[in-house]
Write a structure and sequence with these properties.
Shape: elongated
Oligomer: single chain
Radius of gyration: 23 Å
Number of domains: 1
Number of helices: 10
Structural class: mainly alpha
Largest sheet: 2 strands, antiparallel
Length: 283
């Protein structure tokens, strides 16, 4: 019976010429997924191998902030009327650690690979820009959350622990870490040497983090500086994260969710575009 006759069925091997592309696409998708998982594993392993530096050191820094500011201001400052200053400070330090370490993970990894030359091994792999994005940002989220959990576990002994609405804590922690991981990728793509990454972190990331209400309530500021603080997307991350612990905040967590969500979408779109065109990595 000829194959073009009714009832002939598919050719030998069980593959229909009209449907064969489905299996090809499935195989290609499986290979891309496997490559993404491998790159994600490599990025997580990269910081975990030196966890004393990448996880323990930031936890120690947060403890020092807590000991100094908490000791000096605990008896002099009450926030939201009833919340002690040390209790108020802990969520801010946790979120600050999450943001700074998520940025540091992706930015340092990419700039190191560019300078040492081993980025070529990732470039020759058949990975899409989405695979790069998921792997680098995913590893940044893992590191940021790991450091944040370490800070929370260690500092929780210094003040009564409260967790009024945990879903807000998780939402703002993950979204904040993802945004900073994507921003770290943008900085890593743009930078050509370590000095530029350091400048990006010291003149943009750190000031925006410290001026976002980590150590103080924005509601206590004069009107002008309060309005300026509301232009800082980092403020909404920290304020929304803190809302999950106490159930109160300077602004509505829903407002913060919208601002952080829009900021995350913009940064991710920029990051994906730069990865797609191979900005400063494909010559």
């Amino acid at each position: 019976m000829r194959r073009d006759e009714p009832g002939a069925g598919p050719p030998q091997g069980g593959r229909d010429p009209l449907g064969g592309s489905g299996e090809v696409l499935h195989d290609r998708g499986a290979n891309i997924l496997a490559g993404t998982k491998a790159l994600l594993y490599k990025e997580v392993l990269r910081f975990w191998k030196v966890s004393f530096q990448t996880v323990a050191a930031p936890v120690l820094t947060a403890i020092l902030y807590l000991l100094i500011f908490g000791h000096v201001l605990e008896d002099h400052v009450k926030v939201y009327g009833t919340v002690g200053y040390t209790s108020f400070l802990i969520p801010g330090l946790v979120m600050m650690s999450v943001l700074q370490n998520a940025f540091a993970n992706s930015s340092s990894s990419l700039i190191q690979s560019k300078i040492t030359g081993n980025l070529v091994f990732v470039l020759v792999s058949p990975l899409s820009h989405w695979a790069w994005f998921v792997a680098y940002v995913g590893a940044s989220i893992v590191r940021g959350v790991a450091v944040g959990l370490g800070v929370l576990v260690v500092t929780v002994w210094f003040a009564p622990f409260q967790l009024a609405q945990p879903l807000w804590v998780v939402a703002f922690a993950v979204m904040g870490a993802a945004m900073m991981g994507a921003l770290g990728l943008v900085a890593g793509l743009w930078a050509e040497k370590f000095d530029q990454i350091a400048a990006f972190q010291n003149f943009i990331i750190m000031p925006m983090t410290f001026l976002s209400g980590v150590f103080y309530s924005v509601g206590s500021l004069p009107p002008f500086w309060k309005a300026v603080s509301h232009l800082n997307p980092f403020f909404y991350m920290i304020d929304g994260f803190r809302h999950g612990f106490f159930g109160v905040s300077d602004v509505s967590p829903w407002t913060g969710l919208v601002v952080v969500g829009v900021s995350l979408a913009v940064v991710c779109a920029l990051c994906l575009h730069l990865l797609k065109i191979g900005y400063k990595i494909r010559h």
